[in-house]
Amino acid sequence: MKTYKMFINGKWVEALEGAYREIYDPGSGELLAKVPEASRADVAVAIDAARNAFDHGVWQKTTALDRGKLLLQVAEAIRSKAKQLAELEVRNCGKPLAEAEFDITDAANCFEFYGGLATKVHGETMPVPANSVSFVTREPIGVCGQIIPWNYPLLMASWKLAPALAAGNTCVLKPSELTPLTALELASIFEAVGFPAGVVNIVTGPGAGAGEEIASSLKVDKVAF
User: Fold this and answer.
1) What are the distances in angstroms from CA 187 to CA 9, 93, 123, 128?
2) Which of 32, 69, 124, 199 has the fewest CB atoms within 10 Å, measured from its CB?
3) What beta strand segments (E) does the chain contain?
4) pLDDT tens-place string over residues 168-177
């Protein structure tokens, strides 16, 4: 039985109130892990970290090429841990191993796809009359709050995180309180490959409280649910 911490502002932290949730294997009933039970205050700290990383951190000056390289490293790290991640997905989520293996492969493919796409975001120029120029430039929106369900834990985390990060956003992701374990293992990959502090934050807790803070905070620019 493993006791996890949340990943906020580049650090592994407990919930401010010290609360934990027990995570069970739905097939055997075995106690798998304990994870922090975040309150709205915990999530507010994570949102502030993402806000600061976007507004004042090095991420806004990180080139699309370098963002893409980081995402490609995440893809390779997922592949290197595919067996362990698939087995953890089975034990936490209850899905068949063959499906879990496919999901882990697809998660790596997702980060690889957006790692390549990071340098392919282009603007437009439009012909206009007179001595004028009209153009569109595409910019990151800011802090992305991301809430995912229980049935594809790592894959849906990848679907949310990879495109947002490729575009230059920062993220606060909340996995389902029932299946948070592979998302927390993914956080360790972000730490290992060297994402700047505050760019990716992964919080654990229920929708009532933790999810509500993501959905209602005025410091969050976009919510994906």
Assistant:
1) 11, 18, 32, 47
2) 124
3) 2-3, 6-8, 11-13, 20-24, 31-36, 124-126, 134-136, 143-147, 170-174, 200-202, 222-224
4) 999 999 999 9
